[in-house]
Design brief:
Elements (H helix, E strand, L loop, with lengths): L12 H5 L10 E4 L2 E5 L12 E5 L2 E4 L5 H11 L25 E5 L15 E5 L26 H11 L6 H9 L62 E7 L8 E2 L2 E4 L20 E5 L18 E5 L7 E2 L3 E2 L12
Parallel strand pairs: 3-9, 7-12
Antiparallel strand pairs: 1-4, 2-3, 4-13, 5-6, 7-10, 8-9, 10-11
C-alpha cells in the first residue's frame, strides 16, 4: 500500500499512519491512512472500473461479529431481529399469507445438478429461521458460539453497531482493509487461490450447489479466525460469510477524484438509486463484500477483495454477517457497551 497525504499537506503524515491512541477494544486493529486501487476490470461488471481511492486511518474488528457477541447485545437490549418479526403485509403487496411469518432465507442444496440461472433452486424462505436457528426451527447454535452471526438484516447490524459504540465500514474502507498488503492481487493473499494446496479461506469446493467437498474443513460457516489473517491482521475478510457495509449499492463504481488526487473516504450510492430489481416493492440494497462459504469456482467467484453484491436491507441469510469500525473522533464512544 502507498500512503498519499497530498490532499492535505498541513497534516503530519505520522498522524495518519499511526493510531491516535490505544484500540477501542482489544480485538480491533488499526488500518493506516493510505491509497489503493479499488475494484477490478477483470471479473464481474459491477466491480468496474478500477479507480484509486484514499482512505483515512480507522480501527476495524479483527474478526466477524460472533454469535456470542450478538447474544450479549440481545440479552442487554431485548432486541428482536428482523427475522424474528412477522413482516408487515403493507410492505409486501401480493405476498402469500403463509409467507408473512417470522423467518429467513436458508441455503438448501438440491440433490443434484441444476441450472445455475435460478438462485431459487438453492435458496428458500424457512419460517422460524433466524440468528438463533440458522437452518430453521430444528437447528440451534450449539458448538457455533464462535461462528459469525448470520440471518442479520441491515437494521439489525446497525442496531448492534450503535449499541456497542461503533459503525459499519464504507465499501472503500472494507476493501482497503481486506486487501492488506496485497494491493492489486486477485485474492487477499496473492494470485493463487490455494497456494501449494493450502486453503486460505472458507469457500465452496466442488460442484455448486449440490456437491460441497468441504476440502477446507467446513460445509457452512467456520469459527472466526480459522484461516490465516491478511497483511493487516484481518481474519475471514474473504469467504466464511458476506459482510454488510454502510454504502448503498450501485451497479458500477463511480471513478471520482478531486483536483488534488484520489477521492478521499468516498461513500457510495443513495437509497433511491439502489432498489432490488427482483422485488416488486423495490426494496433498497446495501453493498455486501467478501464472499462466503457459498462462493465457488464454478459459480459466484466472489471470494475476492474487489467482489461486491447488492442485497435487500430487509433480508438476512445464513451466509451474511458483519464487522464494525471506529473512526478517530468517535473512538471515545466505543467500548461503553462491552
Amino acid at each position: 500500500m502507498t500512503t498519499n497525504h497530498a490532499a492535505d499537506s498541513s497534516v503530519d503524515p505520522t498522524a495518519r499512519t499511526q493510531p491516535p491512541g490505544p484500540p477501542p477494544d482489544r480485538d480491533m486493529i488499526w488500518i493506516p491512512d493510505g491509497t489503493f486501487l479499488m475494484g477490478s476490470d477483470n471479473h464481474y461488471p459491477e466491480e468496474a472500473p478500477t479507480h484509486r481511492v484514499a482512505v483515512s486511518g480507522f480501527w476495524i474488528d479483527r474478526f466477524q461479529v460472533t454469535n456470542t457477541q450478538f447474544r450479549r447485545f440481545v440479552k442487554a437490549t431485548d432486541y428482536v431481529t428482523v427475522a424474528e418479526r412477522a413482516p408487515n403485509a403493507a410492505d409486501y403487496p401480493g405476498a402469500l399469507p403463509e409467507m408473512l411469518v417470522p423467518g429467513s432465507v436458508v441455503f438448501a442444496p438440491p440433490p443434484g445438478p441444476v441450472p445455475l440461472v435460478d438462485h431459487y433452486r438453492w435458496w428458500t424462505w424457512i419460517p422460524g429461521a433466524d440468528w438463533r436457528r440458522p437452518e430453521g426451527p430444528d437447528s440451534n447454535l450449539s458448538g457455533r458460539e464462535k461462528h459469525p452471526v448470520v440471518h442479520v438484516a441491515w437494521e439489525d447490524v446497525a442496531a448492534y453497531a450503535a449499541w456497542i459504540g461503533k459503525e459499519l465500514p464504507t465499501e472503500a474502507e472494507w476493501e482497503y482493509a481486506c486487501r492488506g498488503d496485497a494491493e492489486g492481487s486477485t485474492f487477499a493473499w496473492g494470485e493463487e487461490l490455494a497456494p501449494k494446496g493450502k486453503m486460505m479461506a472458507n469457500y465452496w469446493q466442488g460442484q455448486f450447489p449440490w456437491q460441497n467437498l468441504a476440502l477446507d474443513g467446513y460445509e457452512r460457516t467456520a469459527p472466526v479466525g480459522s484461516f490465516p489473517p491478511n497483511g493487516f491482521g484481518l481474519y475471514d475478510a474473504i469467504g466464511n460469510a458476506w459482510e454488510w457495509t454502510a454504502d448503498w449499492y450501485r451497479d458500477r463504481h463511480v471513478a471520482s477524484s478531486s483536483c488534488c488526487g484520489p477521492a478521499r473516504d468516498p461513500r457510495g450510492g443513495d437509497r433511491a438509486s439502489s432498489p432490488d430489481p427482483r422485488e416488486p416493492a423495490a426494496i433498497p440494497r446495501k453493498t455486501l463484500k467478501g464472499g462466503s462459504w457459498a462462493c465457488a469456482e464454478s459459480y459466484c467467484r466472489r471470494y475476492r477483495p474487489a467482489a461486491r453484491m447488492g442485497h435487500p436491507i430487509d433480508t438476512g441469510t445464513n451466509h451474511i454477517t458483519f464487522r464494525c469500525v471506529v473512526r478517530p473522533g468517535s473512538a471515545e464512544q466505543s467500548g461503553a457497551a462491552q
